C-alpha cells in the first residue's frame, strides 16, 4: 500500500509534469472507482492543472476550479506515459481504472491502475478536497508544522489502544500505514502491542523522534524517483517490515511476524520486546 513517503514522491513527480498543462480526455475505465457524480469527471477536460497536494495518503490534483482526488488503496498506482495508446481504453478485467490524456505534448498523460481482485482505489471530482470524507476525517500530518512533541503527546493521552493501531489510525496521524508503523516502532525500540496511554514521557519522546526520522528519511530516499521505481525503493528501505525470518539489521536477531486476517506486522524481539516473541494471534481491534 502506498503510504506517506510514496504518495509525497508521486505528488512531486506529478506536479512537476502537470503544472500548466490542460486535460484533453479523462477516460474512466472502472466505474466503481469513481465515488462522486457531481461535478462529472468530464468537467476536468479542458482545464489546466495548477498544482498537486497531498492529504495523508490522498492526492489532490487541481484542474481549474476542480480537484481530481485519488486514494490508491492497497494496490493502486499512477503510471506516467509519454506515449499513451491512441485507441480509447476498454472496460474489462485489467488493472486500468482511469486514463488522463493531456492536450500537449500529444500522447502524454497518466494511467491510474489497481492490481488484484480486491478493489479499494477511490477517485473523486470535487470543488474542495474537504468534500472527500476521508480527507475531512484526517488527523495531523506527521510532517506538518503542527506536529510538535506536545501535540503528539496530546494525541496519545488517554488512548487505550495498542500503539500499532494508533499509529495506523488516519484520524490520529495522516499517512502512516502498516509498513511504516512497523518501521517507526522498530526505530523507537517499542512493542507494537504496548498501550499508547501507558507510554512514559521518555517513550513518547522516543516515539515522536522515530516518526519524524523514519518518515523524513523515507521521503528523502523517494524524492525525485519515477513512479515505477518507488515500490522497489520502499522495499529496500525497510528494516523489519516484509523481512520475516531475516536478521534484524540492528542486532541480528530474527525478524518475526504476527499475522491477522488480511495483513501482518513484523518486529524484532531483541530490539522491541525484551527478547520475548509476541503471540501470533488475531487482534482485530489492531486493524481498525
From TrEMBL:
SUPFAM superfamilies per UniProt: Glucocorticoid receptor-like (DNA-binding domain), N-terminal domain of MutM-like DNA repair proteins, S13-like H2TH domain
Pfam families the UniProt entry points to: Fapy_DNA_glyco, H2TH, zf-FPG_IleRS
Residue ranges of every copy of the Formamidopyrimidine-DNA glycosylase catalytic domain listed in the record: 2-93
Ranges for domain FPG-type: 239-273
Record has DNA-binding as a keyword: yes
Cofactor (UniProt): Zn(2+)
Catalysed reaction equations from the record: Hydrolysis of DNA containing ring-opened 7-methylguanine residues, releasing 2,6-diamino-4-hydroxy-5-(N-methyl)formamidopyrimidine
Family: Belongs to the FPG family.
Name used for this protein in its record: Fpg/Nei family DNA glycosylase
Amino acid at each position: 500500500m502506498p503510504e506517506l513517503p510514496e504518495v509525497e514522491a508521486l505528488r512531486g513527480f506529478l506536479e512537476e509534469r502537470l503544472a500548466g498543462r490542460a486535460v484533453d480526455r479523462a477516460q474512466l475505465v472502472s466505474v466503481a472507482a469513481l465515488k462522486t457524480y457531481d461535478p462529472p469527471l468530464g468537467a476536468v477536460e479542458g482545464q489546466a492543472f495548477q498544482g498537486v497536494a497531498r492529504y495523508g495518503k490522498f492526492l489532490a490534483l487541481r484542474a481549474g476550479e476542480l480537484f481530481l482526488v485519488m486514494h490508491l488503496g492497497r494496490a493502486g498506482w499512477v503510471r506516467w506515459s509519454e506515449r499513451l495508446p491512441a485507441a480509447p481504453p476498454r472496460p474489462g478485467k485489467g488493472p486500468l481504472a482511469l486514463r488522463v490524456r493531456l492536450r500537449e505534448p500529444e500522447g502524454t498523460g497518466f494511467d491510474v491502475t489497481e492490481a488484484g481482485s480486491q478493489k479499494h482505489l477511490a477517485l473523486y471530482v470535487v470543488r474542495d478536497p474537504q468534500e472527500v470524507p476521508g480527507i475531512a476525517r484526517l488527523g495531523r500530518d506527521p510532517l506538518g508544522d503542527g506536529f510538535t512533541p506536545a501535540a503528539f503527546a496530546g494525541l496519545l493521552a488517554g488512548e487505550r489502544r495498542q500503539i500499532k493501531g494508533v499509529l495506523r489510525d488516519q484520524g490520529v496521524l495522516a499517512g502512516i500505514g502498516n509498513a511504516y508503523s512497523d518501521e517507526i516502532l522498530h526505530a523507537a525500540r517499542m512493542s507494537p502491542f504496548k498501550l499508547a496511554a501507558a507510554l512514559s514521557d521518555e517513550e513518547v519522546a522516543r516515539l515522536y523522534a522515530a516518526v519524524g526520522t523514519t518518515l523524513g528519511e523515507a521521503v528523502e530516499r523517494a524524492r525525485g524517483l519515477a513512479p515505477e521505481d518507488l515500490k522497489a525503493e520502499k522495499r529496500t528501505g525497510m528494516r523489519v517490515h516484509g523481512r520475516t525470518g531475516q536478521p534484524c539489521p540492528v542486532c541480528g536477531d530474527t525478524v518475526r511476524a504476527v499475522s491477522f486476517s488480511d495483513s501482518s506486522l513484523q518486529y524484532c524481539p531483541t530490539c522491541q520486546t525484551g527478547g520475548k516473541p509476541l503471540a501470533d494471534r488475531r487482534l482485530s481491534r489492531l486493524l481498525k
